[in-house]
Amino acid sequence: MTPNPHLNLLILGGSSEASDLARRIAPDPRYAATLSFAGRTRNPILPPIPCRIGGFGGAIGLAAYLRDHAIDALIDATHPFAARITANAVHAAAITATPLLRIDRPAWQPVAADHWMELPTMAAAAAAIGPTPRRVFLTIGQQDLAPFRATPRHHYLIRSIDPPDPDLIPPDATLITARGPFDEEAERTLLRAHQIDILVTKNAGAAATEAKLAAARSLALPVIMIARPPTPPVDRVETVTAALDWLSRLHDAATPRGV
């Protein structure tokens, strides 16, 4: 780690926590931060710090970036389902001896009135919808639709930030492009208007998209919940505030006395 009065920080983004962290450290002279997006969302909301869009070329490419840009600290604030990026971050940090922290927001937990079926994969979810044609609300993003093409007997209401690749969309589908946060009453109205029988979603744990679960609960609709993928061991916090505390301690430890 360089003995500079500021830390060179790389944030791996793609979550609301990444954007929040970037906004909160932007005016702080202790950090020179860059926020990196994978590029899957076409028009990401850019915070007031330098940003880059695109991959690194795996763990080795990320390690090279950390070295070439004299990165002092790496924060993985990617989506809970971005397991490959998290694994690459762990590997690259180990190669370069770069301090690494993951912001891992808490997962959603069912309550007594919920009717959840928790499954490990999209293929299992598609099969679990069952043999009887149903009206299914898919809120799984645009990358994971292909398994549902194998169950074309159902009608799918698909919501994502960007339009999905047409080759991934099941044949009987209605598309909605929208970005959260979503309101519970609006979600309930949507479910009723499309006569939804069942909801399929990832356990993202985000407050901005939790209203659909409350709406499904109020309508006694079943939910197929895709569990988070396993990730390598890494130092974790649940909140941006905790990440800021980690950064502050790292800065204090790296700054020589009198600087």
Automatic annotation (TrEMBL):
Keyword Oxidoreductase recorded: yes
Does the keyword Metal-binding belong to this entry?
no
Q: Which GO terms describe its molecular function?
A: precorrin-6A reductase activity
InterPro entries (UniProt xref)? Precorrin-6x_reduct
Q: What is its EC number?
A: 1.3.1.106
The metabolic or biological pathway listed in the UniProt record of this protein is: Cofactor biosynthesis; adenosylcobalamin biosynthesis
Q: Which UniProt keywords apply?
A: Cobalamin biosynthesis, Oxidoreductase
User: Which top-rank group of organisms is this from?
Assistant: Bacteria
Stated name of the protein? Cobalt-precorrin-6A reductase
What organism is the protein native to? Acidiphilium acidophilum
